[in-house]
Design goal:
single chain, 269 residues, mainly beta, 2 helices, 4% helix, disordered N terminus
């Protein structure tokens, strides 16, 4: 972990942090799915139910197929999808939903109901997750070449044990100052929990003399169970040379718990 700055230096330049907390994508504006995310807290052996509303906002009839996938997050915090049953955290065999295929006329809606359960025999219950995608495929022809275009929009589903331990760490942090005095906050965050952690970062930049020069909040983020995740964001109001302090406050969804840290940094002449 001592070399994390080197490992993630390429990400500092890219600054692409795209975090999907539910996957409600406006695919060509033709299909709307609500809600975009379910979080269930149930005991081993218990079941719970939910309902998804799928609406056709287009001006044409759509034939939709519902498919279930595993997913995780890659190094850029983007969702990567796998066939159901591939990952350890899969909901394969633990979720049932109906209908799986249906046709919607323009403006028409369909309710898709589902049931999830937590395995009864887990010695140490852990989070299961997946995503139901509603997929529409239509032919496409360009310069005589036949192909098809598939649009997908989905609802993310988490099934968590009712009792769990939140274990979150600020492993390291720094403010990277480039040669042209651009300041970038870089945090390395980690979770030892068996469930995902949902959080927001509030920050303040204090200039020499205690003057507050910048304050902001990052959008809600997620760390999956037992993962380490880098987080980057720019500090836009630091323009003069001097010694500064970046004051971090992390708030966790569903709890009153907060975590704080202070990162001193210097902008040279």
């Amino acid at each position: 972990m001592e070399n994390w700055r080197v490992k993630y230096s390429a990400l500092i330049s890219l600054m692409v942090v795209i975090f999907l907390l539910g996957c409600s994508l406006a695919v060509q504006g033709s299909i709307r799915v609500e809600p975009s995310r379910f979080i269930f807290n149930i005991n081993p052996g218990e079941r719970d139910t939910g309902a998804i509303t799928v609406k056709n906002n287009s001006d044409r009839e759509l034939f939709l197929t519902a498919n279930f996938y595993d997913w995780l997050l890659d190094e850029r915090n983007e969702m990567v999808f796998w066939d159901s049953g591939t990952l350890e955290a899969t909901l394969a065999g633990l979720i049932r939903f109906n209908p799986r295929q249906f046709t919607l006329s323009p403006g028409e809606s369909q309710i898709v109901r589902f049931t999830v359960e937590m395995p009864p025999d887990d010695e140490e219950p852990f989070e299961r997750r997946g995503i139901i995608f509603f997929e529409h495929e239509e032919p496409f022809e360009e310069e005589g070449i036949g192909a098809s275009i598939k649009t997908m929009i989905g609802t993310t589903i988490y099934v968590m044990p009712r009792e769990y331990r939140l274990s979150f760490h600020i492993i390291d942090g720094m403010v990277h100052v480039t040669a042209d005095q651009v300041c970038l906050a870089a945090l390395l965050l980690g979770s030892d929990a068996l469930v995902h952690t949902r959080f927001t970062i509030h920050y303040r930049v204090v200039a020499p003399g205690g003057r507050l020069i910048e304050e902001g909040q990052q959008r809600e983020m997620v760390i999956l169970p037992e993962e380490i995740r880098p987080v980057f964001f720019p500090l836009e109001q630091v323009q003069e040379p001097g010694d500064y302090r970046l004051m971090i406050e992390i708030n966790f969804a569903g709890t009153d718990y907060k975590m704080t840290d202070i990162l001193p940094f210097t902008v040279l002449e």
